[in-house]
Structures are given as structure tokens and as C-alpha cells.
From TrEMBL:
It is an enzyme of class 2 (transferase). It comes from the Eukaryota. The lineage of its organism: Eukaryota, Metazoa, Ecdysozoa, Arthropoda, Chelicerata. One of its GO terms (molecular function) is transmembrane receptor protein tyrosine kinase activity. This is Tyrosine-protein kinase. GO terms for biological process: cell development; exocytosis; morphogenesis of an epithelium; neuron differentiation; positive regulation of cellular component organization; regulation of developmental process. ATP binds at residue 427. Coiled coil: none annotated. Belongs to the protein kinase superfamily. Tyr protein kinase family.
Length: 665
């Protein structure tokens, strides 16, 4: 019944030769590329019905009717009594047609490519691809060769299929996408292949509402979970039974996975709230009027009547309004993921449609900024206090992650008072004499809550004295850089710079001086998220003072220190800015040692003579200018961290930090 070369006039002539009610054919649409037309005889006339193809795989609807999976399924339903909304049931297909294109079908037949893929025969698959074998053909279960490669765990074969242009996504008869099958395996490379080819991490299994992250979490594949999170997948999507990935991981007792999912917080990558939040007088009618002449994807957020907020969005043909609901500390739209704030919601739907008619593309700014108020449900949560000092028996220590001046950092497991086992990093003090100061600093650190600062969870009075901190799986940024791990100087480094500047701006607002900012003291939760750690040298400034003067000695990281810190032992936010410039230089050089083999005394002489570190290869002009600004001799001429955060935000592509928005509060 498919006639791939006929236009409207030719179809009409062919059908009227026999003029039999119900005689039909399907052809490409002449007015809408990618769509089809259903031409059917009714009472000596030909009806031409538009068959609209929906974005995802082989889903079709006739003139706005129900969406059906597969052209063959649409034809079958139209041939049943009462199954044709247009009136005339489909009867006999017009002679001379053939089968529809493979990518329009729900079901197919097993072919040679399917068999070779199941068997993992790369030689045969490559030969079939070389001669142009159709990669979109489906077997009896509606699975393409890409589905079958993922189902069998053939990563290399999957790469060959994707390289040949095979589609990376689309549901089979059971509603599962290739990414669902790939997440069954503990192979992050297979998942990354699909994501790089355009697979959507939010594709849902229609039977249970699972997205790929649910599958990976249920299996306890932490490396696969990280790959999905790094690609932008939200950490809290919900199944049809309202289960989160962390719930499924907990059911399987995959505790490392539970901790990762519960502690993961994505920096937002959206416009600032002032660019999309409209004042209370903007109601539904006003929002519709404002957006009715806007480009597709233009949006605003406004106050709602039944809910706190409403997202209004210019779609392909009309303006849509979506209520934003609150659930505990989170917000969500319909059955979408739970997100930490309005900023996170805007960021998420800017990356994925995820049930909306289109992605959020650009905000429609209000005429005047909205009044400052509570920023989000997240910001209204009470800051948790330090867990009661934990006993040594509640900690199980594992391998050493690193050694420092005052002690070592070990991987461990903390058994909480509720009996939950949490993977943690444990910082163990080596010198008993420093214990009092160590505990005092821990008490100060416990109030620090920021997505770009490593969290202190508890302290143990020992002996030895220990700090229990969140575990960041990728370790120090310096090691990551020096080990040759993937780094995009145009995207990763500006994002890291922005996140570090946001964390330091947060410290500055709370009158903390870090004193040891360096790549070795930055830890990676993922490639997309860096956090500031190691507050061993940090101090809180006294009220009324802009600097701290060290009165004790010790081994100081002089190559990262500002001249006034080396000469006079004074530390301030300005000296931290100097260290930030050195840290940026480390990032752009992929972990080289600043000043090479020069001693601290030689470095000081070099700096005081006006010399500075050279511009690294691949470092853009604006970033090197920021470094030089940080390295000005006069402390009051160095930039503050809020300005640095704004600078790096302007040059970052995505995954910015939500925390800098909180500084205005």
C-alpha cells in the first residue's frame, strides 16, 4: 500500500481508475517534508489525509487524531470497523505499491544485519554497511540493529553502526530504547557512544516510565550512572510508580550508587532568574499575549493561582502553560524529574524537551526585575548542622587516596546512626598537637553549604582525629589533568573556573580565606563538576578585618602565594585571588608545575621584578587577562570572586553553578 513516488494528482488519478470505496494508498506528503498522506476513495471522490510524523521514531497521527506506533499499525487500525476517525474505513490497497520504509514501521522481519549483529560478527556487519544495507530495518520485536548490539553488549559493533548513520534511539515493541539496553551492562563506553550520537538520556520506557538512569541505578553500575549525569541527565527522574534511581539502587543494596545519586547536584546552565521570572501581575492571559508573537521556544515563568509558579512557553502553533508543582524541597512539571529549584528546572528543560512541545530556547525578560524573595524551595531548607561527633566504630577505613602536610585522606564507609552505609572520604590528622585547631576549623566548616565546596559530614575525635567528608569519585583535578584524561580547553576549563570562582565568592561572602587554593585541592565529582576542598590552612576573618596574619610556621605552598603572603604572612580574599590565577594556569597547562624548578625565593624575586607566568598554549586572551589581573602587585587592584564568576560564566557553554545566584541574598 505504500507508493513512494506518487504526488497528490497522480494518486488521485490512480485511485479513480477503479473508484472503489475504501481503496487506499499511502504516499509521501507533498506539503510537509517527512510526513505522509493517506489517500482513500469515498463516494467517487478521493480524500487526502495528512499523516503527521511525531519527533520520536515511527509515531504517526492522522489530522490530529490519536498517535499510533508504526505506519502499518495506523493502516491496520484504519481498516477496522469504527477505527477510522475520518469516516471511510480502509479497504483494499491500491495495486502497484510496496512495503513502507523501514524507519516508519513498528514491526519488521529479521534480516541478515540483525542476525550478524546478534552474533557479534563485526566482519559481516561492516560488509553489509559498506554495501548500504538499511540500518533502520526492524525485526519482529521492533528492534533495529542498534537495539540488538546494545542488547548483546557489542560496543565495537555499535560504534560501526552509529558511524554508518544508524539512529541511536527509538523504542522497540516493548517500549525500550537502545540506551535502556546499554545501561544493563557495566560498560560506560557503550552508553557514551549512544549519547555522543544523539541518544536522549530522558527516553522513557512506556510500560514503566523508566529512563536509562533507572536501569543503571537498579543494576548498581556507578560508572554508567556517572556517564549519564555528566551528559546532563537529571538525578531524580520518576517512574510510573514514583520511584527515583536512588530508590532502585537502595533496593539492590548498591550503596555507592545511592550516595552518588543523593549527593549529586547539577550546576545550572540557564539564564539568571531576573531574565525569565515575571512580576505577579502577569497572568495567563497576559503571558499568552506576550508570547503569541514570539519565536518557538521563547518562555517566561510567572506566579500561578493554584501553584506557586507556571511556565509559559511559545510552542509550534500556540502558547502552552505548565504548572510547576512543589514536592518537598523539589519542583517538577507533570511526571517530569524532581529538580532542586526553578533555576534547575529552566536549565533542564533548556537541555531536553522531556514532555514539553519544544525545548526552552530563550527567555522573554520582564519589563522590570521581580522583587527579591525566596529563590527556590531548595534555598528555603534549613542548613543541616554537623552530625553529632561520630565514634571510631562507625567508620571503616579503606585505601589511602592521598597524603598531605598534616595527615592522609582515606576512602571509607560511614555507618550513620540510622544504619545506612555511606561511602565517604576520611581525612585523618597525623599530628596530635594540631588537634584543637583541627576541631575548631571543622566546626567552622560545617556551616559551609555550596555545590562547589566539598561537604563536611561529621568529625571523629579519635584518636586519631578525623574529618568525614563527601567522597568525590574522580579525585583531584591535578591528577585528572596529569593523567591525560579528556579535557576541552574551550568548555571544561571555563566551566571549572566559573565553579571555583563561585565557591570562592561564597567563602568571601562568609569571610573565609582559603589560603591553599590550587589544582591539587580541587576535587571532581564528575567532569562537569569541580569542588573546592582541603581547608586545612583556611581561616575565618575577624569582624572588622580584611586579612588574617599567620603566627605559626609550617610548609607553605609559596608558588601559589601572593607576595604579601610570603613577605608578611598576611592572607586575604585578594591573596586567594592570586592563587586562583595560578590555579587557572595549572588548568590550561594540563597540570604543569608553576615556575618549573625555581625555588620559592627565586619565584618571589621573579614576581617582584614584574615577571609573570607565560600564557599557556590554548589559553584564550580573555582568560590570560584574568590571570594577569589576579597577579597585580597591589591587593586592592585584584578582582573579587563575584566578578571572576561572572566573567567565566559569560565564557562557559553549560553547567554553570547555581550557587552564585545565592550571593545576592
Amino acid at each position: 500500500w505504500y507508493h513512494g513516488t506518487l504526488d497528490r494528482a497522480a494518486a488521485e488519478r490512480l485511485l479513480l481508475l477503479q473508484a472503489e470505496d475504501g481503496l487506499f494508498l499511502v504516499r509521501p506528503s507533498g506539503s510537509s517534508p517527512g510526513d505522509f498522506a493517506l489517500s482513500v476513495v469515498e463516494g467517487h471522490k478521493v480524500l487526502h489525509l495528512q499523516v503527521h510524523r511525531h519527533r520520536e521514531d515511527a509515531f504517526f497521527s492522522v489530522d490530529g487524531g490519536p498517535v499510533v506506533h508504526g505506519l502499518e499499525e495506523l493502516v491496520y487500525q484504519g481498516s477496522q470497523e469504527g477505527g477510522a476517525p475520518w469516516g471511510q474505513p480502509l479497504g483494499r490497497p491500491c495495486p502497484g505499491g510496496g512495503p513502507p520504509p523501514p524507519d516508519t514501521r513498528r514491526h519488521g522481519r529479521t534480516n541478515l544485519l540483525h542476525r550478524a549483529t546478534r552474533q557479534g560478527d563485526l566482519v559481516v556487519v561492516n560488509e553489509l554497511l559498506r554495501v548500504g544495507y538499511a540500518t533502520e530495518a526492524k525485526d519482529e520485536e521492533g528492534r533495529t540493529a542498534v537495539h540488538l548490539a546494545c542488547l548483546a553488549g557489542h560496543t565495537e559493533l555499535l560504534g560501526a553502526l552509529l558511524l554508518a548513520g544508524a539512529a541511536p534511539s527509538g523504542p522497540d515493541v516493548s517500549g525500550r530504547h537502545p540506551l535502556h539496553y546499554a545501561c544493563e551492562w557495566e560498560d560506560a563506553d557503550m552508553v557514551k557512544e549512544l549519547l555522543s550520537a544523539g541518544a536522549c538520556p530522558q527516553a522513557r520506557d512506556v510500560d514503566n516510565g523508566w529512563v536509562p538512569l533507572h536501569v543503571a541505578a537498579a543494576r548498581g553500575h556507578t560508572n554508567v550512572v556517572l556517564a549519564l549525569l555528566d551528559h546532563g541527565a537529571p538525578a531524580r527522574p520518576r517512574t510510573l510508580r514514583h520511584e527515583l534511581p536512588a530508590d532502585l539502587a537502595a533496593q539492590g543494596r548498591h550503596l555507592d550508587c545511592v550516595h552518588l545519586l543523593e549527593s549529586y547536584e547539577r550546576p545550572v546552565s540557564s539564564y539568571s532568574r531576573s531574565s525569565w521570572l515575571h512580576p505577579p501581575h502577569v497572568d495567563r492571559e497576559c503571558a499568552t499575549r506576550l508570547l503569541s508573537t514570539s519565536e518557538e521556544g521563547t518562555f517566561l515563568v510567572r506566579r500561578g493561582r493554584r501553584t506557586s509558579y507556571v511556565l509559559s512557553l511559545a510552542g509550534p502553533t500556540s502558547v502552552f502553560h505548565f504548572e510547576i508543582h512543589s514536592q518537598g524541597p523539589y519542583v517538577h512539571i507533570d511526571d517530569g524529574p524532581l529538580l532542586s529549584s526553578l533555576e534547575h528546572l529552566v536549565s533542564h528543560y533548556g537541555n531536553f524537551e522531556d514532555g514539553l512541545p519544544v525545548r526552552l530556547v530563550q527567555p522573554l525578560p520582564p519589563d522590570e526585575p521581580p522583587p527579591v524573595g525566596p529563590r527556590s524551595p531548595t534555598s528555603q531548607r534549613q542548613t543541616p548542622t554537623l552530625t553529632a561527633v561520630v565514634s571510631r566504630d562507625s567508620l571503616r577505613l579503606g585505601e589511602t587516596l592521598g597524603e598531605g602536610e598534616y595527615g592522609s585522606v582515606l576512602q571509607g564507609v560511614w555507618v550513620t546512626p540510622e544504619g545506612t552505609e555511606v561511602s565517604v572520604a576520611v581525612k585523618r590528622l597525623r599530628e596530635v598537637s594540631a588537634g584543637e585547631g583541627f576541631a575548631r576549623e571543622a566546626e567552622l566548616m560545617v556551616d559551609l553549604r555550596h555545590p562547589c565546596i566539598v561537604r563536611l559530614l561529621a568529625i571523629c575525635l579519635g584518636p586519631p582525629l578525623m574529618m568525614v567528608q563527601e567522597l568525590l569519585p574522580l579525585g583531584s583535578l591535578l591528577s585528572y589533568l596529569q593523567q591525560g584524561c579528556p579535557v576541552d580547553l574551550e568548555e571544561d576549563v571555563p566551566r571549572w573556573g566559573h565553579q571555583v570562582a563561585c565557591g570562592m565568592a561564597y567563602l568571601q561572602a562568609r569571610r573565609f580565606v582559603h589560603r591553599d587554593l590550587a589544582a591539587r585541592n580541587l576535587l571532581l565529582a564528575s567532569r562537569m563538576q569541580v569542588k573546592i576542598s582541603d581547608f586545612g590552612l583556611s581561616r575565618a576573618l575577624a569582624m572588622g578585618s580584611d586579612y588574617y596574619r599567620a603566627t605559626t610556621g609550617g610548609r607553605w605552598p609559596l608558588k601559589w602565594y601572593a607576595p604579601e603572603s610570603v613577605n608578611f604572612g598576611t592572607f586575604s580574599h585578594a591573596s586567594d585571588a592570586w592563587s586562583f590565577g595560578i590555579t587557572l594556569w595549572e588548568m590550561y597547562t594540563l597540570g604543569e608545575l608553576p615556575y618549573g624548578s625555581l625555588t620559592g625565593v627565586q619565584v618571589l624575586a621573579l614576581v617582584e621584578s614584574g615577571e609573570r607566568l607565560a600564557r599557556p598554549d590554548g589559553c584564550p586572551d580573555w582568560a590570560y587577562a584574568a590571570m594577569q589581573h589576579c597577579w597585580r602587585m597591589a591587593p586592592d587592584q585584584r578582582p573579587n570572586f563575584s566578578d571572576l564568576a561572572a566573567l567565566f560564566a559569560a565564557h562557559s557553554v553549560r553547567h554553570l553553578c547555581a550557587g552564585c545566584a545565592e550571593l545576592a541574598q
